Fold this sequence. Notes:
Alpha-Beta Plaits, globular, alpha+beta, single chain, 10 strands
Amino acid sequence: MQPNMLVTTGRGEEFAGKLEAAEVLKEAGIGEVEVEETPIKGLLAARVEGDPVEAVRRVKKLMEERPELFQYTKRYIPLERTVRTDLEEMKAALRELVHKIGEDETFRITVEKRHTQLHTREIIDALAGIVDRKVSLKSPDKVVLVEVFGALTGISVIKPDDIASAK
Length: 167
């Protein structure tokens, strides 16, 4: 499975989280859904039909309307591209997405990494040169989100509020 979404749970709650995530995504009206545990504690990988950013927006709406559905899952994170954890592949993925940052928009690179030897600085240095826009660390228009989880890395160019976090 090539995941296009990450879902976080409490450590030790992966199995219950997997069932909950599948239920939540179906409830949000997402078509085909596949959720798997990863070797990383507290992290699930999901594959959803259609646009993962739109799917996360639907989950976010569901969080507001029906918070009781979210007992085990904490965050839903869209991955627009998933590549091997390799700086050249990450750069290629970002080149495909960089058009989503308008010429007058600002951006920030956010890196979350698990189970990797790569340093955050290395990743940011490799990717920053691809985006020819102004940087805003405090209030960017767009976030280049880099999610490293072992041998795979997910990359998205999203608005700062395009991650769903349960209260």
